[in-house]
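Hi L., both proteins are below.
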Amino acid sequence: MRFRGFTLIELTVVTGIVTLLMTLSVQVLRGARAQAQAAVCAGQVRQLALGLVSYQTENDVFPYGYQMPLAGLLSSDQYAGMAGAVDLPGRWWFDETQTVDHATGQGEKLLTCPSKRQDHPALASDLLCGNYGANLSLCRVEKYTSPYTDGFGVPLVSSREIQRPSETLLVVDSGYALICWWHAADEPPVSLPPAMLVVGGMIQHAAYVPGMAINAAKDLLQGQGVDARGGRHPHKTVNVGFCDGSVARKKADDLLVEKVADGGWNNGPLWQPSGDSITPQETAP
């Protein structure tokens, strides 16, 4: 029996089907990988939130988000591998919870979001950028060159000052290690300077919630665009850790802060723990 070969049309159809199946397989695998990374991220956010809650339980106060180093105790080279030249040396909230041992690098993986999408080398290697941010309204700072009035001072006490801990954000996917509701507001109370502004040796306003629609209009650092505008997890979701230690996956735009009828912002209880709508103190840039 004489064998009849495939015609050109048949080969073209088969090739097209194989190509389509390969494309679909790659997309399915890519989606599964993204979902797996988001699940790992959720687990890490849970551990970080529980670490902060445990610290609060033991000390009756949340840790400082950032503290200036005490003279003679910390040198800038101790933090050079972590923060690089753009950040001040000092202690961060994850140092207070003993999450990281900078000498050995132990714990740095926990602080690194597996879906981090900041592609500039200076940011890609920086633990403070493009991973997780603690809420400045809870984990305040001692000294911080910033227009925020609710971001410095004494950190809050959970049991007395946070009325709805299961609804108040403690740690979240973020462009920077410290974040507050101003970074999630469509109209912040004070106009934020450009992201490239460096004040007191510290990059200011590098924080954002990945995937929020308002990020399209922000002046971002080089390398932040894909993460900030395109989002980090499937469907532009973020992992949010709350003050009771729970974690939820939310649409990034669910964290948006907007002005309300009385001239304030609907920043509580998600971002601000003490009420449903809080008007900030008068601030100066």
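That was the first. Here is the second:
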Amino acid sequence: MSGNRRIAGFDVGTSSLKVTLADFDTGRITDELRYEYCSFREFSPGVVPVSVYEETLLKALKEIYQNVDIVSMALTTQMYSVCENRDGEWVAHQWNSLWDRDRNIEKTLQDPLRRSGCRADTLFPAYKLKSLDEEKRKNFVPYGLKEHLIHFLTGKLATDYVTASASGLFDIETLKWNITFVSSLGMDVDMLPEALPHDVPVGKINEGLFFGISPKTMVVPGLGDGPAASFACRSISNFCGNLGTSMAARVFSEKPDMEEEHGLWNFAVDRNTFITGGISSNSCTVFHWAERMGINIGSSISNTKDVMFFPWIHGERMPYWSSDLRGTVTGLRVDDGPDVLADAIIKAVAFTFVRMADVLLQHAEKGCPLVIAGGGTNLSPILEVIAGCINIDLAILENAEYLCSTGAAISAGAAIGAVVEPDFKIETIIKPTNKYRKEYEKWLSMASSISVLYS
């Protein structure tokens, strides 16, 4: 039945699987679904059995197939993952997995990582692979969660250019794998996935996965998670960011800035489009940490006097790209209470976002707002501080929870010549106030000085 045909985007996120369904004939969004992960477990922080995602993906597909036919589907997953066969079980080391820094190898990584648009940091799979000893490396493959899931669904090993770029094993100028570098790691180059644009079909879904169901679904790579979210709201602005478990800001551009000096990354979307961005490990996780320490993040912001907080509890990526940094407080006095520290923490997370956005502002389209999504947008103080530092309107969307899955659905539709039309509306526009700019600049200077102590 033609009225039952759907285009689907699957967002394999940190905490749950989200699905956006769009009508094949009209392109309109019909359903937004959420699935908790089946039997979720971690071997250690950020090291998760791939079977958790496989089981949940199958469960979601089987339920959806009971009601509609999925003509085309695309996946978006967390970027920066790499897979290991651990005692016969596949596990994904994700962006937040703990990894020791190896200063001795970093000089040898500078050029190949730059060619991929990455930085010399433990975040990137290439760094992880390079820092392993030869025996341990034999258990790893040169791809991550997305590629594993696409192979699980289709029997074919494929990925998109953005996710390939984020591995550190790619060359964004040629849009090909850096074979010389991969070979130098002792990895089998025949195990490299086929790198494709995000909206080019990989193949049909394996019917053998579904007893009693014969789906004819085309599987499409989709983009990485953050770029997919930006892709979904690109009609509103090319400048987007998120305040979630991690923090990032991104802009689309026509060419990469290979000489960029501010600590940004540059990934390929297709031959004519690139995405440039910054990322921080210290976003809402800092608020969760504070609450565990008995520091309650409030609904308003007050004067923090001379107290400054530097939220590097996970090290820091842009602009330092160093896991050696540590969370730091300066200016505390004996009469300062937990409320002062709580407000300093809010400002520190906001200032971290502003630092990324400030650098990217020069690449943003004039007249467009900065679209911000993620759970952190529910905290009005952090939005107040951001608006008090950056010279651009902030836009909060009515329903941004399914941005990533909607971006994937757009890719899935484009692969078969269908247009998915999301209907994201701006809920709030927050005008810049310049209220916290001087305090931010003081924080920025102090952060630069303190980072030298750790490095």
